[in-house]
């Protein structure tokens, strides 16, 4: 309709009509573009809100369970160091042999961050981080991402060391099923066993420190996120 009217005005040399038709078209295009921009901005705000809410909920849920996990790992670590310290003695009292047998199996445990949270993968790998308007919040999320990447690399390093020393622990002790049949002397005189037990306990300690640092970064990001959560 606009085009046919424009042609009629042009043929009749009705320049005022031509100008008005042209303005109607321009204004219509401008309004349509503005409406599209407004709608896209609304969708971006909704997506930003959803991503931040998802990140916040995942962080809070993990914080609640992570502290329990750290405490459990610390308990295991204490047992590992008890076993390590007992191997430095010249001889054992009967109760110390029993304590060693109860604690040595803690050295076969290993833990650490092995993958990034889903919320981080959605934000960063999914290209959603640019939707977040607050640059300080963007930087805080990236800092947490870097902390996670460092923790994953530390896990890889410690796991590699664990794969070396753990078989050496097993090879240095004579088992009958789950029972240790090595004599006290065989255990206490075995310098290799003493060394690898100490090394494994140190690797476990490194992982505890790494997880604790990651928990602090998580708690920091939660506080930064709170004002953005409805």
Walk me through what this model shows.
The model has no long low-confidence stretch (mean pLDDT 86). This protein has a two-stranded antiparallel sheet with strand order 1-2. Helix 2 (15-86) packs antiparallel against helix 4 (118-125). The chain starts with a helix and ends in a 5-residue tail after the last helix. It is elongated and about 105 Å long. The longest helix is centred in the N-terminal third of the chain and has 72 residues, at 15-86. It has 230 residues and is mostly helical. It has helices at 2-11, 15-86, 94-103, 118-125, 135-171, 184-188, 191-225; strands at 175-176, 179-180. It has 7 helices and 2 strands.
List the keywords.
230 residues, mainly alpha, 7 helices
Brief sketch in words of this structure:
The protein has 230 residues and is an all-alpha fold.
Describe how the helices and strands are arranged.
Layout: H1 2-11, H2 15-86, H3 94-103, H4 118-125, H5 135-171, E1 175-176, E2 179-180, H6 184-188, H7 191-225
Helix pairs in contact: 1-2, 2-3, 2-4, 2-7, 5-7
Alpha-beta classification: mainly alpha
Helix count equals 7
Helix content: over 70%
Mean pLDDT: 86
- Number of DSSP strands? 2
Order of helices and strands: HHHHHEEHH
Q: How far apart are the first and last residues' alpha carbons, in Å?
A: 48 Å
Please compute the radius of gyration using only Cα atoms: 32 Å
- Widest sheet: strand order? 1-2
Shape: elongated
Given as residue ranges, the uncertain stretches (5+ residues, pLDDT < 50) are: none
Beta fraction: under 5%
Largest sheet: 2 strands, antiparallel
